[in-house]
Fold this sequence. Notes:
By secondary structure, the protein is an alpha+beta fold. The protein has helices spanning 9-17, 60-65, 69-81, 105-120, 200-216, 298-326, 367-378, 404-417; strands at 4-8, 25-33, 39-46, 88-96, 134-141, 147-153, 162-163, 165-169, 177-192, 219-222, 251-257, 270-291, 337-341, 344-349, 356-361, 388-389, 424-430, 448-453. The strands form three sheets. The protein has an eight-stranded mixed sheet, sandwiched between helices. Strands 9, 10, 11, 12, 13, 17 and 18 form a seven-stranded mixed sheet that branches. Helix 3 crosses helix 4 and helix 5 runs antiparallel to helix 6 (298-326). The model is unreliable at 54-62, 240-247, 330-335, 394-423 and 428-454 (pLDDT under 50).
Amino acid sequence: MGRTYIVEEAVGQYLANIDLQGKAFVSGLLIGQCSSQKDYVILATRTPPKEEQNESLKHPKDKLDNLDEEWVTEHANQVSRMLPGGLLVLGVFIITTLELANDFQNALRRLLFAVEKSMNKKKLWSFTEEEVSERVTLHICSSTKKIFCRTYDIRDPKSSARPADWKYQNGLSTSWLSLECTVHINIHIPLSTTAVSYALEKNTKNGLTHWAKQIENGVFLINGQVKDEDCDLLQGQKKSSRGNPQVTCQSFDVRVLTQLLLTSDHRSTATVQICSGSVNVKGAVKCRAYIHNSKPKVKDAVQAIKRDILNTVADRCEILFEDLLLNEIPEKKDSEKELHILPHRVFVPISGSTVMLCDYKFGDEAAEEIRDRFIEMLDQMIHIEDLEIAEEINTACMSSSMDSEASLDFTDDEQAKQPLKTTVVLKIQQNIGLITAFAVAVLAAGISFHYFSD
């Protein structure tokens, strides 16, 4: 018996309304949530057309072989940033003409594994052995409307297709539960002299990996309580006359406690590291996760919010680096320190659901740009007035100073005057040196020592 996919009826209507418009096929992503018993699909979005895509191929069979995996995987990477904790790309769909009805499976299989590999490459966390490792492929014939639903084990590159059930349900996510928390971060990432040859983005991710372990090992309080991970999240909730917990639009407050000191059975060794500079990520981030209301476990809820914490910090840093590379900063030979404001988070509701999607916005971006991204990436029309600004943020700024000590003192004093509680700042501090092409920060000319304990 294969897996069962419970699908929001609006997804079925969305797929039925997709018009091939003379094309041989249309591909897209399926978005939802995994659980041990069954999976939930609450959203589908077609792959946006590529502007330079050539549609002049003469033979339809050649077109399916020409499925642009790189374009689809990039779309999946962008979409994954817009998903709060608990949601992920569950698989891919393709709608084809009748002529291609027998030629879709190999293309879908390749696409599914390519998408999964690309998305997992940038994550600060890994799937556990206990988690569901099956992902879904959905094929729909535009002429006969027949649906073929198959799953593959993404942990096994040689896995074969397994049949799966595809069942529609109205109002699937109208009563899903939300978990919200604000995490204050102050991550110091020393850049050793042996690592300066790497891109700053890579060094930053390596530093975030150490912080991610602290979050993974943290203690999570739900509504101020530590709960057993195998307990039902809704345990102790009042029940209605029908026997169902009253969970409509219910939200849980989550707090994260990270370990400051090692226990006595662990030895701490002080180390000296010769560094050319450092990266500091500090401020506060708003995190949010959603989970189904069908007897959810505490461990599933904690895992969802935990991964949202890791994803939102990593995504913001990645978006900033992309923005700096896109708008290449001119060389500043007299600069030791640069101050950047990371993009802040906005949430957008899904029609007929308690679930909200998210995006990231720089201070100088207009709300219309957020709307356009949702149309392009998720094929969702949103109203600007529905945007929920999760974090207030000042206009992005960059400061530099010749004297590193003075620069540090100045920046800290200035930051103390700003509403840091809702601001995330990436401070890139490096000694004066040569700026290479597309470099985001100034490389070391002097050497500083950083002492820290692990």
